[in-house]
Design goal:
The complex is a heterodimer of chains A (411) and B (234). Chain A has helices spanning 2-15, 17-57, 124-130, 155-161, 196-199, 207-214, 233-243, 254-257, 259-297, 299-307, 312-348, 356-361, 374-391, 393-401, 404-408, and strands at 60-64, 95-109, 114-122, 137-140, 150-154, 168-174, 180-191, 202-206, 222-227, 249-253, 350-351, 367-368. In chain A, 43% of the residues are buried. Chain A is an alpha+beta fold. A 6-stranded mixed β-barrel of chain A has the order 2-3-8-5-7-6. A two-stranded antiparallel sheet of chain A has the order 11-12. Chain A has 2 domains: 2-52 and 261-408, no CATH class; 66-247, no CATH class. In chain A, 53% of the residues lie in helices and 19% in strands. The model of chain A has no long low-confidence stretch (mean pLDDT 88). Chain B is built from 7 helices and 10 strands. Chain B has 234 residues and is α/β, with parallel strands linked by helices. The relative contact order of chain B is 0.20. Chain B has helices spanning 48-55, 78-88, 104-115, 119-133, 148-161, 178-195, 206-209; strands at residues 3-14, 22-33, 37-41, 63-68, 71-72, 89-92, 166-170, 198-202, 214-219, 222-227. In chain B, helix 3 (104-115) packs across helix 4 (119-133) and helix 3 packs parallel to helix 5 (148-161). The longest helix of chain B has 18 residues, at 178-195. Chain B has a single domain (3-227), classed as P-loop containing nucleotide triphosphate hydrolases (Rossmann fold, 3-Layer(aba) Sandwich). In chain B, strands 6-7-8-3-9-10 form a 6-stranded mixed beta sheet, sandwiched between helices. Classes of the chains: A alpha+beta (411), B alpha/beta (234).
Amino acid sequence: MYKMIHHMAWNNLGRRYGRSLLVILMIGASLWGLLFMEGIYDGMTEQIISNTIQSDSGDLSLFARGSRLEPSLKLLLPDTLLERESLHPGPGSLIKSRSARLSHTGLLATAHAARQVKIQGVVLKQEIHHAELSGKLISGTLDFGRTRTGAILGQGLAEHLRVTVGHKVILTAQDQQQNINSLALRVTGIVRSGNQQIDEQLLYLDLGHCREFLGVAQGFSQLSLILHEQADVHLIQNQLSLELKDQSLDILRWDQLSPALLQSRQVMETFNLICNLLVFCVAGLGVWGVVTVSVLERLREFGVMLALGTSFLQIQVQVLLESILLGLGGFVLGAGPGAATLIWLAHHGLDLQIFQEGLQAFGLDTIIYAVIRTGYFTTAFIAIFLACASSVILPLHRLKQARPITILNQP
Amino acid sequence: MDPFITISHLHKTFAPNRESSTRALIDVSLSIPRADFAVISGPSGSGKTTLLNLLGGLDSPSSGSIDLGGTLISNLTEAELSPLRRDRIGFVFQAHNLIPVLNARQNICYVMRLQGRSRQEQENRVSELASTLGIEKLLDKYPDQLSGGQQQRVAVARAVASRPELLLADEPTASLDATNAVLLLDLLEQLNHNEGVTVLISSHDSLVINRARHSIVLRDGRIVRDQPESHETP
């Protein structure tokens, strides 16, 4: 019997194919729009998070205990820490890359302007790999020069100081012994980290040169780790906490270091949920309209079916099936092109050059790469399914109220 | 002979609590034996269709009882009436009322499918009825591809396909020309004779009334004549 119900449901949709097609198109277009928005907005959020992880927090960072809240050149991690096997990236390790940074604040000045900076003493080769600097270089080279007096600046900082590659700048800072030291540097490169806040203060120096300048014999402020899989971050954090419990360290995840980023991800998840709710409403209203009209104009037909002994349950199943077939059609029509669009945007990106200033203000690149998650499709599928299922309640309720003879007597 | 249908003191009033209430049936009592070929006649508005609808379990009486082969159908709920209509009663409606998205074969099989009959049984029954009703070539056509007479024959095939005990036909010849009306009545008589189906027809068509073995005449909701084993004269 249910084969016949399926057959009838399918044929009923075909009876008014123009109307059915319109609803399918409406659901499909809404879903495509939803997937596009979800993919791009998540891409933006993930880009901000990824940029911050690469340039600053890492997936996981090690600090000398208390130095995060009260930075001091006297609270440094020992160089011997770098020799630990568990902190080495490489084959078989869950760690993809690491960078040891000696961080301190200072003042960078030209003859016309001065700006507070966050000095990052780094091993450039490590940092290039770790922060993927090659892709972030705007001008100049990733090189501190033969004399190691080169400096790589964040784009925001260079703009504030109005310097370009080749310009000289003076760095002033208080060393470990509380002496004020100055150092002449030549700008060798300008990078855009993708995080405006970081860019406005970022100054890369050679680690050895930085140590000399700050009067630090050995040690570093932060060991930033990037993992192969971000999902392993809790595991590694726990393992390192156990292994290094006698080292007086703070081992912090990116979301502990930048809780605002986690919040932005949560905001995006809420936004996606609202978008799904909108698709639910669009699909629900569309299917509800069609099913209501379809049921009301076929009341007599249902009356005949009831008179012949069809149970109300079987009619319910048929109407529900018609509604779900509409929803499924819309889902396939929206999910197919939606997935194709996201795959294309994940590879080629969406070029938003015309919004460059605005995007950079939010720490975004002008090319946004879409994110694709299975959850987009499952949530949308559930939303459409629920919309279709709930859209038949009212029409069926109306049908249920009437006796077969009342329905049969409909004009 | 034990009656197959026993109707006792049946009343039906439409919109009873309103000023415009209509008493469609007033104290109707009637007995119809099994395998009878009965015709309910009377002028328009006399209550023929109402009586047929009550017998078919499509509507419920205001008071009184209807016993169908030992089942008091006037007391059944809609959920209980549904399988009764499916298994024991066949309907031929005035307006054919075929299901438009099913072809003639599927329409004929519809009730058998509801009953869960095997595909082979359905096929055999369709072939048998199609041959009897002369609709072999129409089986793959949809209702909108059939003429009124053809649709009515398919409707009759659907009504009797599941071998119901009672066949109710409401003005079955109303939309047919004389030739098709005679053919349809021949068919109903044949089914009544060959398969022992109790046939109850409501009509004011003299062609139909003349074929009645049991003539029931209604006027203003009351039975004015109940004449078993008789033939009306025009």
